[in-house]
Every structure is written in C-alpha cells, then in structure tokens.
Amino acid sequence: MATILETPPKILPYQGDPHSRPLWSVMIPVYNCANFLPETLYSVLQHDIPENTMQIEVVDDASQDADVEEIVNRIGRGRVKYFRQEQNVGSLRNFETCINRSKGKFVHLLHGDDRVLPGFYQTMGNLFYQYPKAGAAICRFRYINEAGKRLYDQHVEMKSEGILDNWLERVAVKNPSQYAATAVRREVYEHLGGFYGITYGEDWEMWVRIAKHYPVAYTPKVLADYRMHSTSISSAKFLTGQNHKDLLRVMDMIQDHLPHDQRKKVLKKSKKFYAHYGISVANQVWHSSQHKEGVKTQIKHAFDLHFDPKLLFSTAKVYIKMVFNIT
Length: 327
Prior knowledge:
- Residues 25-168 form the Glycosyltransferase 2-like domain.
- Helix content is 45%, strand content 17%.
- By secondary structure, the protein is of the alpha/beta class.
C-alpha cells in the first residue's frame, strides 16, 4: 500500500567493501512505464561504463503493465540488475529503496520514462571532481513528449560550468531541475534523508534542502531528457488540480529552509511564478486532452496564487481556444 512519508526517511551508510565500490549508481525506479523503459535502459547502456564503475539497477514498484524483469533481462543481458517490491509502496518509498540499495559514491535517480544523453556521466563526474564540496550536480535538460520528440530545452541557469551563486534563494523560488538531470553524492542523502511529504514537488523540496547545506555544481550542457506524457504522476494531478495543492505544501516546507528575512519575498515570487505556470499547464491540458474541467481547475488555482494583467491575458487566450475548439 502506497504511503506518504511525513518525515525524511533515513538513508543508511554504505556498508560494502570500499575498495570494490563503484563510482556511480544509476537507480531506475519504475511503475507501469514499460513502454518507455527500453529507451531509458539503452540511454544508460550506450555510455558503456563497466560494472566496477557503475551500478545499474531497476527498482520496480510492483508494476502491472508488463513483465518488467523480462525487459530488464532482455535489454540489460546481466549488466542491469532487477529488484521488485513485494507490493506497491508508492513513489516515495520506492525512491527510498533505490537510494538505500545504491552502492556508488554518486547516485542518479533516473525514472523509467526519462533518458540520459551522451556525456552525462562524464560531465557530471568531472563536476564532482572539480568541486569536491558540491553536494549535487545538475545539467540542463530537454522536455520531450510521449513519442520522444523534443519540445523545448530548460532555461540556462549560468553560462559556464561552476558552482551556482546564491543558489538557495534561487532554487527556493521555483524547481530548476528534474531527477534525470540531477546527480547527488550518496553521503548527502545519508546526511539529509530521502524524499518525503508529497508525490508532486518532492524533488523541489529536496533540491532546496541540499542547497541549504551544500554548494551545487552546474553545467549548461543539455544532457538529459524529461518526458511529459499522459500517464505520469504530474499529468494525472494536472486534471484534478492536486498539483497546486502539492505546490502550496512544498512552498510551506521550503520556508523552513530559508533565513527569516528571505521567506516573505521568496514566497511571493514563488506564487507569481507558479500562477503563470498554472496557466501554461491549463493550456497543456487543453491541447493534450480537451479536458475542460481540468483547464478551469488549473486557472482557478492560478488566480488563487497571484493576479496581474499578463496572467489575465494568458488566461483569455486559453478560454478562446476552448470556446472555438482550437487544438
């Protein structure tokens, strides 16, 4: 039975032989995403990194859509390990399992519907080597659709590689990354614990938590693909408006990570950003499903967060599309 963790779960220290420890752990949490998993696996395997340097393991949250173990064995040919939960435990518990099963110094949680691009592990590893105090490293990424076609690229945080300046305040305003584009030192998870609280935006809270305690390294290279599709957790929550409720919860959680003199300013910026983001989600819902109630729900929650003339103009454009059935 899926559970929502109310506190960060404990991540146990690595107990294995330090002399045979791999540098990387690519942990792939999956649940009913068998159609995309082969692409994910091939994207990692194409890096051709030996087993003594990289652990690759699929952690299956009791999927029901396919024989995931067969897919892993067929594509991985023994190079990719497989672990299945006895019952569905939910995404947060599955992430916790992934991290606790990881052996590497650097952990990459790569969801079973996302992809990495050539050079990801080399570039991210170099960042950790250049900046040994960095708790995490992030890269730019592409948004792709269900068919794997590029939609657009994540914006640039910094033009050159290095440590991100004033990162705690910046990351606290909006979520800058995705799991696919983020690698974290295992010792950081051991120190701070795992993901908790909600199942939409839990990564944002983690990135803020890390930024509070550690520098974060960055490369402007586009080295990962984040897939947007109708069966994802995000898409399901877009139709009900639960994404806004979760975001408000995350904003509240983030306040505890900030100095008192920054909290009010950051919260105001967050609400403005996610109000405008809500209208873009409403537009996305309309184009992907023509779900009018879902569109209206997104718009309502957006106006609950913030109001300005630009928001009103963007909303009008979405309503015009609905009235004239423009898709």
